[in-house]
Design a protein that fits this description.
Layout: E1 2-6, E2 19-22, E3 25-28, H1 34-40, E4 47-52, E5 64-65, E6 75-77, E7 89-91, E8 102-104, E9 111-113, H2 120-123, E10 131-139, E11 146-150, E12 159-164, E13 170-175, E14 181-186, E15 196-204, E16 209-224, E17 240-241, E18 257-265, H3 271-281
Antiparallel strand pairs: 1-15, 1-16, 2-3, 4-18, 5-6, 6-9, 7-8, 8-18, 9-17, 10-15, 10-18, 11-12, 11-17, 12-13, 13-14, 15-16
């Protein structure tokens, strides 16, 4: 399994402000939609989810954050289709494609999938032979623990979650049906508070490899990704964003923001591919 975090410095192959080398010519970067960037880069194979607060096809108003991956895996803004206190707040202008277009959390907000139960590709993420990539543009406040997404916690197994640990590392955890930990690992570098960063996790369980990335392009950590006696059963809850589980465990801190969330299942993107997404979309976030 592989995970990586990227902060916004200048990496090799990146030229003066706003320009990216895209052989054989130089091309001015623009504030593209996430799905446009992934399509241009040829990285839509096995893409299961693409949520983008700056894409008017993904969100304009109302209670649904729409998946633009063409898989129809949408999320309620809050726990269900009604307006409630768990609704994240949309900021910016629909279709604005800047760092201002995002969802802010208040220490108890979440997004919950609209589907009746987690689909097979979500449940595969905590099972034997898991193979996935999760990438997000986020701006987190304070310190952890705060959950970015998950299907389960130790008290609600089996499942997986990705969170920011108390020291501030990006952390992935997977658990069996009894709540026993079958794999965890975290970034060495801590996620800086109040700063837009491109964060991610890749896991190649059958290959025994894992990577975490914080501030992608600058910090990659490789870890042992093999699961120990993984569960064959499905998670008891839906996939939830902004907390570690449907139970609302460890919500994102008040003021934390998410602008985009992308998940591939059946594919572990390479460090080169992840960096290419970072460089294609970073100008939206001023990094």
């Amino acid at each position: 399994m592989q995970h990586m975090a990227l902060a916004g410095g200048v990496a090799a192959g990146f030229s003066p402000a706003g320009w990216a080398w895209n052989a054989p010519r130089m091309r001015k970067q623009s504030n593209v939609k996430m799905i446009t960037a992934l399509t241009e880069l040829g990285l839509t194979t096995n893409l299961k989810l693409c949520l983008d607060a700056g894409d008017a096809s993904s969100y304009t108003s109302g209670q649904t954050w729409t998946d633009v991956s063409a898989n129809g895996f949408d999320f309620y803004r809050g726990s269900d289709a009604t307006t409630e206190t768990t609704d994240p707040t949309f900021n910016g202008v629909a279709g604005g494609r800047s760092s201002k277009e995002n969802f802010t959390f208040d220490g108890g907000d979440r997004f919950v999938q609209t589907a009746g139960s987690a689909p097979a590709w979500v449940n595969n993420m905590h099972k034997d032979n898991a193979l996935f990539t999760v990438l997000t543009w986020a701006n987190l406040t304070g310190t952890g623990p705060e959950g970015l997404l998950g299907t389960s916690t130790l008290s609600n197994p089996p499942g997986f979650n990705i969170s920011r640990s108390t020291p501030g590392a990006l952390l992935v955890g997977a658990y069996d049906a009894g709540g026993a930990t079958i794999r965890t690992f975290a970034t060495d570098d801590l996620i800086e508070a109040n700063k837009w960063q491109f964060l991610g996790i890749t896991l190649n369980e059958p290959g025994g490899a894992g990577n975490s990335y914080a501030n992608i392009g600058e910090s990659f950590k490789t870890a042992n990704g093999a699961y120990t006696a993984p569960a064959a059963t499905d998670a008891p809850g839906k996939l939830t964003l902004g907390v570690k589980s449907i139970a609302g465990t460890h919500p994102l801190n008040a003021g934390s923001k998410i602008a985009a969330m992308m998940i591939w299942e059946g594919t572990c993107l390479t460090q080169t591919q992840i960096r290419s997404i970072y460089h294609r979309t970073r100008t939206r976030f001023g990094v």
